[in-house]
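Work Package 3 (structural annotation) set out to generate three-dimensional models for the target panel prioritized at the project kickoff. During this period the team completed the workflow that converts sequence records into discrete structure tokens, so that structures can be stored uniformly alongside our sequence database. As a representative example, we reproduce one entry of 82 residues exactly as it appears in the project archive.
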Amino acid sequence: MSIGIGQDITDRKYAKAASVLEERNRIAREIHDILAQTFTGIILHMQAATQVLTDDLEATQAHLEMIDECFSTRPTTRIVIR
């Protein structure tokens, strides 16, 4: 009987470890997606700002403000990662 109890405890530990690993992987995927989206936005706005830089000062300013807004998410991202 004690062998069965020991096996049950071991099985529970493995199940718990698998559950923790699965959650970590889910969080890692979510962080990756958030960062990829943020950096893609920054790149797109930088390209757009570069294209209108000499022609349209207001549009350039709007793109630069969006880049700044994207960068402002960094502290939140750091909190999520920790």
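The chain has one domain: 2-81.
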